[in-house]
Structures are given as C-alpha cells and as structure tokens.
Amino acid sequence: YIRDITLQGNESNRDKVLLRELEINEGDLYSAKAIHQSKQKLDRLALFESVEITTPKTDDPKIVDLLVVVKEKQTGSFNIGAGFNTLESFQIIGSLEKRSLFGYGVDVNFRAQIGKITQIFDLSYRDPYFLDTKWGMTLSAFNVGRRFTDFSVTSTGGSLGFDYPLYMDGLKRIRAGISYSLVNQDLDNLLPTVETLFSDGVTSSVTLSLSRDTRNQVVFADEGTYYKVSQEFAGTVLGGDNSFTKSEFDARWFIPVAKKATLPILSKSFVAIHFNTGYVAPLEDGARVPLFERYFPGGVFSIRGFRLRSLGPTIPVASANDVGSFTTSDFNIGGNKQLVFNAEYVVPIMDRAKIFGVMFFDMGNAFDNGESMLTLAGQRQSVGFELRWFSPIAPLRFAWGFPLDREEDEGLVQFDFTFGSLF
User: Fold this and answer.
1) H helices within 117-200, ranges in order?
2) What does the pLDDT look like over 166-187, one tens digit per residue?
3) pTM, whole model, 2 decimals?
4) For 72-97, what is each residue's pLDDT tens digit?
5) How many CB atoms are located within 10 Å of the residue 116 CB?
6) Strands 201-213 and 224-234
7) What CA–CA distance (Å, rounded) separates 39 from 21?
8) How far apart, in whole angstroms, are the C-alpha atoms of residue 43 and residue 49?
C-alpha cells in the first residue's frame, strides 16, 4: 500500500498542480500501471524538464512511500520583434505567455501580430481545473483582421467556454465542451458589384464539442491520436445578424515508424496524418451563409503548394457597375463544405535543437451546393518537403509545395516561410 506521497522540486508550482494529476493516492493499493500513468500525465503538462517517481521502502514490508521529484522549467516568455515571411511580407510580432500563473496551473497568453494579410490581437485565459473542479474554463478576447483573395474581414469579440472529462484513463481523455462567442465582423475591400450580395454584422453563437485525445504530448506529439467533432449554432434565438449552423470533424494520428531502431533518426521518426472536414448551412429560409464563415483552403496551414486561401469555388462577377465599361472576373466565393487531408513523414535532423525534416502529401478543396467532396474529382493535390524548427520564439517552417494538378495561374512550386502554430 502507499503510505505517504512526497513532492520535491516544485518550487514555483503549488502541490495541488501535481497531486491532481496523480492516478494513485495515499492509502491506495500499489499499482505500477497507475504510477506509470501518473508520470505520463505530469510529463504532458509541459511544466517540467524531468519527472521521476520512486517508491522508497518503509519499515513495514507491506507499505511503501511515493516520492515524486520534478525539475521545473521556465514557463514564462516575452517576445517582441519584426520579421519577414512569404505570406505577410514585413510584420511585427509580440507575445507574452505565462504557464501556471502564480503556480496555480492556469495559463495566460497575449499575442499580437501585424502584417499585410493578418492582424491579430488575442488575449486568452485557460484554467483546466476551474474552482478546483474537473471543469475546464477558457476565456478569450480578440481582434483579428484577415485578408482573402477578393475581400478582407475584421473580427472583434470574445468567447467563454467550459469543458468536462467524461472519461480519463492515463493519457486517454474524452471531453465534452460548450462555448459561447459574440463577434462583430466587418467586410471590406469588396468589389462594388458584389457588396449587396454579402452582409457582415454581429454573430452570436453556441458551439458544442466532443473530443478524444491519447497524444503523448499536446504540443510536440509523436504518438497517439486526437479526434474532435463540433457543432455550432448561430443566430435565431441567440440574436445577432447572422444565422447558420456549422459542423466540423478533425482527426489526427501520430504513428512511430521504427521505435526499436538503433539510429535516432529512425527511432524518433513518425508518420503524422491529419483529416479535417466541415459543412456550413443557413438556418433561415432564403438566408445566405456569411462569406467569412465559408471555407477557403490553400496555403501552408491547410493545402501546401497553393497560395493562401486561394482554393474553392469561384463565380464570375462584373468589375464595375457601368454596363458600358465593365469586364468580368472570377470572385472566390469559397465553399459551404471542405475536405483537407495531410500525410507527413517527420524525421528529426537535430533532435535536441528540435529541427525536423518533413515530406508531405496534401489533398483537398472546398465545394459548393451540388458538388460532392467524396470523390477525387475536384480534389487538389500536392507533394513537397519542409524544414521545421521549434525555436525558443516560435515554430519556424520552410515549405516547398509542388501542385500535382497545376492550373494556368499556378506556379511549379509554392515556397512558404512562416512561423506560428502548426496544424
């Protein structure tokens, strides 16, 4: 049996941050499985450089103690700087992040990014054990401006969400969540001839979600799976100017290739597969799905080898209201459904520096009413390679994508250099 549980090394984090992750308690029958799962959960917090759990003997052969020794790592960061990448040209970036604020296990993050295509100001707060319960809470406020092929949109608002574990066994977690968001969205840079076709305004919505997670790590996972299904309802009884429903499914698999190989470059390599699909539809008869809620795949964060947000259905529109002088051009209207598939083989080039080489195959597109996304017809495909560096500032990505079904206005290769979150 377990007599006393002793914690050592947690100078910044309070005892409860560690104790609530343990699968075994004082007085419980000894369980090697529970101790192993406890170590996995503590490692997954990403608050410690190392975690060691031992069971020192006592005077009674039927009783042992449990000693948990951790080595804490720096969990606060402040970064500000300027840079250049192929998506945004020149941009200014700043971030302020603190994991386990005041040692309570809550995370606070502020991020700012000002570039040609994207402007982001985002403040978020995450408490995985809200009021010392199993409920998790996420609160965020943001102002995000994004530029698409034929228009731009600015979103200002916030969200509040709660989630609860339906099942927990070691790294296997099934969680249900609900969140409410209130966002004001402004469309800009539209051609005068299409301004009357699309509206902006306030979106008030509730999203329900269900997820299953078995990844060994949240940020740098190389083993395990992740599934999430979500359903969003906007407008009607919730108010606001936009009414629609959006269903999405996201799945990720991380599969080690040769864990028993003697060469580190093989033993630590893995296959990563990502699948995402979604469908959005209006809730009121005669209503349109807001332009900014439609799908615009393409680019380094979805289907590499193509320009950012360049894929999806187009419609011919007039370039001017004057009948005597106008010409027509294609307007990227996006799709009401999409399918994205990514397959990667990831190899560590310099493991300690977290530099990886990646070979990939991407496929997918967005589709409109009357078009099927379950056939190969219309799916855009590409292959290529990447160099990734998880630097102390942010993940850097150098990607070369080659479209396999290139069209006239597309190049032989699309190079992207960017930094930020990975898909």
Assistant:
1) none
2) 998 878 899 999 999 999 999 9
3) 0.84
4) 887 776 655 555 545 555 666 666 77
5) 11
6) antiparallel
7) 9
8) 8
